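Q: I'm writing a short explainer about Peptide methionine sulfoxide reductase MsrA for a general audience and would like to include a description of its predicted shape. Could you first generate the structure from this sequence?
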Amino acid sequence: MVQPFDQYPGVKSVVSGYTGGHVANPTYAQVSSGTTGHTEAVKITFDPDQLSYAQLVDIYWQVADPTDAMGQFQDRGDNYRPVIFVNSEKQRQIAEKSKAQLAASGKFTKPIVTQIESAQPFYAAEDYHQDFYKKNPERYAMEEEGGRADYQKKFWGR
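A: Of course. Here's the predicted structure. Afterward I'll give you a sentence or two in plain language.
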């Protein structure tokens, strides 16, 4: 989820990590075991004068399958569930409104299951998980093929 956001003007940083669970400072091995309650997530720092929160949410819909409650593309399990973590009531309202508009658009035949939850403590992933798409371009391209790329073509024409 780093690469789709990393390319937009106004995005200052995108950090891979874990949030929403009950274990402090989890490791990838712990999170992927499904026992921590954490979701793999990205923490995005952005300049709202260049990119609005509403625009970030719109980008999210284009890169995450909002109809798949048990994973994202080739990544399966509750730790990959679709969720938007919000930091304020204003962000919650923006995300909820955007979700309702997407549901009403008729673009999807299945219900939108993405949850919108209050932000919890965020734990940065290990260094080898940061900037995965830059460090492992061949593997990233293989994982994208048939996953997110097909989704974007089918639903968003990109």
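A: For your explainer, you could say: Helices lie at 2-6, 28-32, 53-63, 89-104, 132-135, 137-144, 148-156.
Q: Perfect, that's easy to follow.
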